[in-house]
Amino acid sequence: MTGVSGLRFGPRWPLPNGVRLVGGESTGSFVARLAHGNGLGLAEFLGRVGQGQASADPERVERYPQFTEMYVNEAGLRHLEVLSGLSAGMLRRVLPSLAERYVLPGGGEALWQWPWEAENGFLVRRCTLCGYARRVCEPVWLMSEDNWQVCLRHLRWTDDSRSQEPSFVGLKVLPECVRAHRGRLRMVRRFGVAGGRVFADASRIVRCWWTGMPDEPLWAERAWRAGLGARTARAVPLVIYPEAVALAWSMLRFEQGGRFGSADRTRWLADTECLMAGAGLDCTVGRDELLRWLEGCGRDVPGRLRGR
Ligand SMILES: [Zn+2]
Fold first, then answer.
1. CB-proximal residues (5 Å) to ion ligand 1
2. How many CB atoms are closer than 10 A to CB 243?
3. Cα 22 to ligand 1 centroid, rounded to whole Å
4. Distance from C-alpha of 141 to C-alpha of 170, rounded to nearest angstrom
């Protein structure tokens, strides 16, 4: 007899206590909750999932869920399916790291790896109030495209910081960052991939700006309101958010306008510098970055539209 799994080796029956699925959760976070929900340590649970790497130090894995993600091969996925009592299709739809492209090679025996850097995103803590609302009381780590997340429902900012404190930033004290986040969501809804790409470009540029003047009062004051050190790396995406979104809109308007002549570029640069100066930034610091972006802009349009 091979049990409900149909596998000759490995677990045969689901663990008695299932856990609620959370969309976008990291596999490591999910299995930790499943193990703890059944009174098992992670090491004990992992012994049932298969043979893996990093299993030599499961306590470290258990203590630092924000550092690492779990990847399995097809047989490992079957074991997870059996232990959780959930279908592989359902697990794959909800847990991004189980997507086919991240499945480990190797048939036969179940395998899992637990690398110290996640391969497909950032491990970001989920808003705990959202968890409580769904009766999920254990911390949940999301596999996120950005190294931070905003919960608009509870106005909390969480990130992938390896330091535990603070575990979130309350955004009530930073209304301009909430507005920026809503603006970014609007941008992505309206312009799709182009919106995401331009925001990434704008963030990179404003981040360079920040590196040139980390003590800029505009940003230092926001970091102070957030309860973060003005020069700490984790504060950067939050404190520059309003300027990054404003710059992204300006870049999008320029791209969408489709006019890339030298006069158009000069006008855009002057307008954008004006916009950033209005926010209180020293424009000489960021000009090189803006020029570099302008240089690449409009390359894909027909020559007649390009500047000479
Ligand atoms: Zn929330």
1. 127, 129-130, 151, 153-154
2. 26
3. 13
4. 18
